[in-house]
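In response to the reviewer comment on reproducibility (Comment 2.3), we provide here a single inverse folding case reported in full, input and output, so that an independent group could reproduce the run without further information from us. The structure tokens appear first.
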């Protein structure tokens, strides 16, 4: 399994690249990498072409996977499928860089679920009944199916939630104490108190 930190968003509301915001001594991207590495996973960062050179100042080329332009996609699905195409045999454990409150223990619980439901193609927490697809495990077989749907024009919407409707997904509800870890930050005003 490969850890994937999604950093390829536009960060338009934040006004700056969220993955490069510092929390204490580290960038949000590095903080996410460290949490995933605590699970003993190799980790790569999904970035878009505009960010690539900035991320090279902090990470190595081998750690970065640039969005594949041939997919003609934007958003998180572009990042996930780009990593899948580069590592087609690997299951992917995805985490968005803009969840700086995430704890390794929460990730570890998700990893243990993957062992309980071998038939599922994705493992996703739900929050108030809605999926949290940017902290989830995606099996290589499920991603191959999604890519096939995309290539044959059958994936009519390109959202992560829509993707989950097309693969066997194991959902587990967050308890109240876990919800704070899934808070994502989109604007500077939301950073107070971090």
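Designed residues, in position order:
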């Amino acid at each position: 399994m490969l850890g994937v930190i999604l950093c390829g968003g536009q960060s338009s509301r934040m006004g700056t690249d969220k993955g490069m915001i510092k929390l204490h001594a580290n960038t949000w991207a590095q903080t996410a990498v460290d949490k995933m590495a605590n699970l003993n996973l190799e980790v790569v960062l999904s970035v878009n072409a505009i960010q690539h050179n900035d991320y090279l100042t902090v990470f190595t080329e081998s750690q970065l996977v640039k969005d594949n332009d041939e997919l003609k996609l934007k958003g998180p699905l572009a990042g996930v499928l780009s990593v899948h195409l580069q590592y087609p045999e690997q299951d992917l454990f995805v985490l968005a860089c803009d969840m700086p409150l995430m704890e390794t223990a929460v990730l570890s619980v998700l990893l243990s679920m993957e062992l309980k439901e071998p038939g599922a193609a994705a493992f996703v927490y739900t929050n108030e009944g809605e999926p949290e697809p940017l902290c989830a495990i995606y099996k290589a077989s499920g991603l191959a199916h999604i890519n096939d749907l995309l290539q044959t024009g059958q994936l009519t919407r390109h959202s992560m939630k829509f993707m989950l409707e097309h693969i066997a997904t194991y959902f587990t509800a967050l308890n109240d104490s876990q919800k704070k870890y899934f808070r994502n930050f989109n604007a500077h005003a939301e950073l107070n108190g971090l």
